[in-house]
């Protein structure tokens, strides 16, 4: 199913011509922002220096830190009266990043969401419960308008009050849900406690945090949905940037709207298709807040193989953040790897917390996991055996020795927004 | 021989080693007017198991479960200790000679002297051996 078949299946030549045209327009739009005007002139670039798509490499990267320094409206390329909406993304430190939208931006954005939703086969007949934050977070309103655009019946469930959410799913016959994978897990646990089987559900759209294939299997089994991965970033409008099609082998990123590069985060050099690196995006259709070569911090790769659905080149599912990546005793660790290991061990739950300390100049990783009720025999020796098993599985997967702490079921935090499962307590060197 | 009447239901509760957990258990049982007759705590790396003999094990189980505790029943036996040196050795020797493994034990002072609570791998065999040796086993009805 296509929302906009022509643009979604453009031939490579036509796509590149469109991208180049839009890139030039984007650079011209960016010139209206003081920051980019100076950046480009320092680099000696004018709109006419971009003759091919490859010429984009002459343009310096833009980082999240740059955007923060423009707080609040320093990156707007249009007068404030043209801005019809503002969202912000929370930073872990300091000021939030502000993103603005013109009326046209909102239309374009809703259209991208419409493409994604149509691609996975939902539409007018479906009842859609959107269980993400409807405030400053882009996931709420972003999906809301896209879903309305394709004629779904939209329930703005937002977050919190899980029992009520479950009752609405049951009473309204909800077929499609959108939430974070952590919340979906929580939802399934609460539904189980309530004895609700949620039979009307068919499709689950999960995003805003990385999640593994094992989480997919678990969620599909527990909720009875087909689960799709959704990728987006507020700086690039919000959700809707890339999405899994029904093949669910990688995400289609909308190349007519986003120019994609994958770079080595350390050198800034491009890597080849099939090589993992940082996703760098130049949005080609943004009016209020154009960006040039924006470093997303997300780790992925461009896939070499095409797709049965005939849309263009896919990226693999995001395997982590460049900055979430933990370096422990010199070894790169993504929290998603830990999750992957735990999902294979039935004796423990799927929730976890990771603590990193530096003890006697050595990094020490402690993983807290919940003991699964069904596997508690009452014997200390059985618990010790489970603890040892988890430690061994983690060591095999991460090539790192970890301390495993068993905790009581239900005692670890459940996250309704972005999960913060890692607490790094190492002092700066 | 009816060995069943000597099998006592201990409740075993998983507990993290953090302050207040034991108090929470004791408080909850107190609220339900459940008497704790004996208990012990076994600890390993960062977690422990609280073992308790109570007068109403099912009620205790349901209460603690409803509070989110991880809880299981464990079968144990109780031996009255002779009030003289070597009493513990005697019991241990009887079982050891019969190839019965004591997984753990703890003592408490009952109304009529010290009582040893034993968790063994072969409960029925242990009951027979101890009875044959002339030592006294306490019946389940003494507890609940
Ligand atoms: Zn596809």
Give an overview of the whole structure.
Chain A has 429 residues and is of the alpha/beta class. Chain A has eleven helices and 20 strands. Chain A has helices at residues 5-8, 12-30, 34-42, 64-69, 103-119, 138-149, 162-172, 181-194, 213-223, 335-343, 380-398; strands at 83-89, 97-102, 127-130, 153-155, 176-179, 203-207, 226-233, 238-244, 251-253, 258-263, 277-283, 294-300, 314-315, 320-321, 326-328, 331-333, 348-359, 362-371, 402-407, 422-424. An eight-stranded mixed β-sheet of chain A has the order 4-3-5-6-7-8-9-13, sandwiched between helices. A four-stranded antiparallel β-sheet of chain A has the order 10-11-12-14. In chain A, strands 19-18-17-20 form a four-stranded mixed β-sheet. The longest helix of chain A has 19 residues, at 12-30. Chain A is globular. The termini of chain A are far apart. The mean pLDDT of chain A is 92. Chain B has 144 residues and is α+β, with helices and mostly antiparallel strands. Chain B is built from five helices and seven strands; from the N terminus they run E-H-E-E-H-E-H-E-E-H-E-H. In chain B, strands 1, 2, 3, 4, 5, 6 and 7 form a seven-stranded antiparallel β-sheet that branches. In chain B, strand 5 and strand 6 (113-120) form a beta hairpin. The interface between A and B is medium-sized, with 18 and 22 residues. Residues 245, 247, 252, 307, 309, 311 of chain A line the site of zinc ion.
Q: Top keywords for this entry?
A:
heterodimer; A: 429 residues; alpha/beta; Rossmann fold; 4-stranded antiparallel beta sheet; 11 helices; B: 144 residues; VC0802-like; 2 domains; 5 helices; binds zinc ion
For the record, what CATH class of the largest domain in chain B applies?
A: Alpha Beta
CATH topology of the largest domain in chain A: Rossmann fold
CATH homologous superfamily assignment of the largest domain in chain B: VC0802-like
Give the % helix of chain A.
Answer: 25-40%
Q: Specify the CATH architecture of the largest domain in chain A.
A: 3-Layer(aba) Sandwich
